[in-house]
Input
Amino acid sequence: MTNSVYIVQTLAVLFLAAGWALHASRLYRRLDRSRRDPLTGLWTRDGWTRRAERTIRRRPRAAVLLADLDGFKAVNDVHGHAAGDAVLESAGARLTAWCGAHGVAGRLGGDEFVVVVDDDARLDDRIADLAELLRQPVEHQGVKLSVGASVGAARLAALPEPTLSAALKAADQAMYRVKGRTRRGRRLLLAPLFAALRGLPQRLRFALAA
Output
C-alpha cells in the first residue's frame, strides 16, 4: 500500500469518526435538554434522579430536600397562569443560586421542587434561608406576587436505609410536618380579614355570621 493511499484511508476514518462524535454530541445535548424543565431550567424528575443517585454514591452524607410553594394555586386563580409561571421561573432561579456548585435542584412537577445537597453543620440555617428566599415577592406586570414555602429535609446518614427513595419519603414527611406546624401562607392571607372583622361593631359581626 502506497503512502498516499494510506493517508487517504486514514483521513477518511478520521473524518467518519469526527462525524460520529459530532452526531453523538448533538444527541447528548438534545437528550440533556429534554431532561431540563423548559420553564425553570431545572432538571426534570428523570434528569434529577440520575444525578441525585450519583451524588449519593459519592457523598454518603448528602441530604435531600423537598420544597412546596404554599398558596401557589391562589396566584394562578387570581392572577392567571402567566403570573404562576413567573413565580415558578423565579423559584427555579432562586433554587439554582442557593444550590451553587454544591447541590442539584429539580422540579418534580407543579410547584414541587427537590434538591440534593451536601450535609454540613449549617444545613438547618441554610434551609431556613432557602424557605425565606422562596417567600420573597415576585414582580409581574406591576403586581407583587407572594407565596409561602415549606421545606422538608432528610439526611442520608440519619436514615436506616440510606437510599434516594427512602430520603425522598422522609423529606416528604418532614415537609408536611412543616406545613402542619406553620401554615404560613394561610395566616398571612386571613389575618387582615380577621382583623377587619374584629373592628366591626358586635351587632354587625353577629349579622354577618348568621
